[in-house]
UniProtKB/TrEMBL annotation:
Top-rank taxon: Bacteria
Membership in a protein family: In the N-terminal section; belongs to the transposase 2 family.
GO molecular function annotations of the record: DNA binding; metal ion binding
Protein name: Transposase, IS605 OrfB
Biological source species: Crocosphaera watsonii WH 8501
Domain Transposase putative helix-turn-helix: 1-46
Probable transposase IS891/IS1136/IS1341 domain location: 165-279
Keywords tagged on the record: DNA recombination, DNA-binding, Metal-binding, Transposition, Zinc
Xref: CDD domains: rubredoxin_like
GO biological process: DNA recombination; transposition
Domain Cas12f1-like TNB: start-end pairs: 291-358
Length: 391
């Protein structure tokens, strides 16, 4: 049985909003204090301060007179934020993520409540120290007889309140087999191109609302810092960003769900997106296309529904390789969208040819269970030759 989070919007009462804002403020304070102490301990004494030490410090902070307000909110979100900080450091030391950042008030906030800090009664959610249930907009039903294990309250920068309810979902089951396989090449002009020859256009949500966003940001820049008008203008900017984010995510969810339902095997490239974003000419377009989010959704949905996702090596020459005879051209600039193979004379659409090569490589990976890289790049070959010559 898979764990699944259901996200809903809710509208807190005045008392609930005051309590939740205080809770998020305390969570932000504790997280930043712990992060500052851990950073200082490392740079001054080369000491790695762990979760148990920060948890003991939290107990001491609550006893201090100027931090007495920490006792006015539930202690669970405060402990949870320290666990999240520990996870962030674990990922950093394992080189899976960057160094943790300090939390900022303008980014909204979140608070996580475990079972001891909320009550689930007759389909209503009561948070700790709240007398009334949350006024949740139930846009869909939770699985029958399911009990939440974790509840996360989030305030986004545009001022919207969301609750995420984590439950064990018995409805997540493997989908029926379709005996179909597809290779996917992601792009900018077309969001994706499949090995079947289908192209899904890129709506470019950022460009669609760019003029509106620019106008709101100009209005924000003219407001006096610290004024109430500046705060209102910042909310207007955040609302435009929320529009872009929601439209982008809605499209990706519909697209990935369709791909998982229709195919038993999906082959994609394991792209180094972080490195690609260093190209300042393409960074905004790549970020707007959300290739990383697309791959993330495919990954967990394939796991949920019993489908196979194959990631082929990022150095595989999917675009430069002729899908008919296997010839690889030396150079293929991004502005060339069609090319003719000098070996066999086959005319290729760049994206369709790439997706078909990705599918072929993905099938080979699925059968052999190994990475496919028939021809290494020249730079890698040169590095290997240098190492051999030195030895």
């Amino acid at each position: 049985m898979k764990e699944r989070a259901y996200k809903f919007r809710f509208y807190p009462t005045t008392d609930q909003e005051n309590l939740l804002r205080r809770t998020m403020g305390c969570v932000r304070l504790v997280y930043n204090k712990a992060l500052g102490l851990r950073t200082k301990g490392w740079y001054e004494r080369q000491e790695r301060i762990g979760y148990s030490q920060t948890s003991s410090l939290l107990t001491e902070w609550k006893k201090e007179e100027d931090l007495d307000f920490l006792n006015e909110v539930s202690c669970v979100p405060l402990q949870q934020c320290l666990r999240h900080l520990q996870t962030a450091f674990t990922n950093f030391w394992a080189k899976r993520a960057k160094y943790p950042n300090f939390k900022k008030k303008r980014n909204g906030g979140s608070a996580e409540f475990t079972k001891s800090a909320f009550k689930w009664r007759d389909g209503k959610l009561f948070l700790a120290k709240c007398k009334e249930p949350l006024n949740i907009v139930w846009s869909r039903f939770l699985p029958q007889d399911s009990t939440p294990s974790t509840v996360t309250i989030k305030l986004d920068p545009s001022g919207r309140w969301f609750v995420s309810i984590l439950v064990k979902d018995p409805t997540v089951k493997p989908l029926p087999k379709t005996d179909k396989k597809v290779g996917i090449d992601v792009g900018i002009t077309s969001l994706i191109t499949t090995s079947n020859g289908e192209k899904v256009g890129n709506p470019k949500q950022f460009n669609r609302l760019y003029k509106k966003l620019r106008r709101k940001q100009k209005a924000l820049s003219r407001k006096t810092k610290g004024s109430n008008n500046r705060y209102k203008a910042s909310l207007e900017v955040a609302k435009v960003h929320a529009q872009i984010k929601d439209a982008r995510k809605d499209l990706l969810h519909k697209l990935t769900t369709k791909l998982v339902r229709d195919n038993d095997l999906i082959a994609i490239e394991d792209l180094a997106i972080r490195n690609m974003l260093k190209n300042h000419k393409l960074a905004r377009s790549i970020s707007d296309a959300s290739w990383g989010e697309f791959n993330r959704q495919l990954e967990y949905k394939c796991e949920w529904y019993g489908k196979e996702l194959v990631k082929i090596d990022r150095y595989f020459p999917s675009s430069k390789r002729c899908g008919n005879c296997g010839y690889i051209v030396d150079k293929l600039p991004l502005n060339i969208r069609e090319w003719e193979c000098p070996e066999c004379g086959t005319n290729h659409d760049r994206d369709i040819n790439a997706s078909q090569n990705i599918l072929a490589a993905g099938l080979a990976v699925s059968v052999c269970g190994a990475s496919i890289r028939p021809e290494e790049s020249k730079s890698r070959k040169a590095t290997a030759l240098k190492q051999k010559s030195k030895s």
